Fold:
Amino acid sequence: MTIDARPLASSLLTPAGLQSAAAELRAQSPDEILAWTLRAFPGRTAVTVSFGGPGVALAYMASRIEPSTPIVFLDTGFLFPETYALRDEFVRRYGINLVEYKPLSDPGPLYETDTDGCCAIRKVEPMQRALGDFDAWVSGVRRDQGPTRANTDVVEHHVIDGRPLAKVYPLAYWSRGQIWSYLLDNGIPYNPLLDQGYSSIGCWPCTRATRAGEDERAGRWAGTGKTECGLHTFTSIERSTPTGGAT
Ligand code: SF4
Structure:
């Protein structure tokens, strides 16, 4: 089934509009959810890909549906060489429209004393800058990645700097096993560190391999209590109420 993405952005970009869309899209495949987003917000959709985890599937899907789709890549300056190499491989192999954002300043090894401050400079501010050009933000968050992501929906209405933003998670209901099957079935390259005990890959100072039985993201900021870099918490979600208002 294909859901009609019209009427487009203006009426969709409301809590009620996106909740209604989510109710229909939940049963659809990630490719269909991504295609719907690109139709609903033409030229106004960004897909973020870190080239760390299996979320690279989104870059492949976007290249097949609409090759001009901006693939936003945040270069913190502290990524693994394998991550940069995979980014370059996707550009070569799939011709993705890579758009890179970097920090405005270099705080040095701030991660040693203040990981939140470091992530704010190296990740959150560049992402906020990137989103200035878009109404829809597609990312690879999945519900099975850990407790902080367990309630993720396929489409959510968020607010950033007082304006509406559609956050789209085409992989939300896929398991790690499903996404691996997709990568392998389609011969899609992935970060080789995933074969070396790493299950979630960010900046090298803050990433370690995971152990058997640990959550997928347990190797990120291990031992610090920090679980998210802030990329997925600087926007606030709004839901519609039964009377049509928003909370
Ligand atoms: S993950 Fe670590 S190195 Fe990367 S921005 Fe955050 S604190 Fe800094």
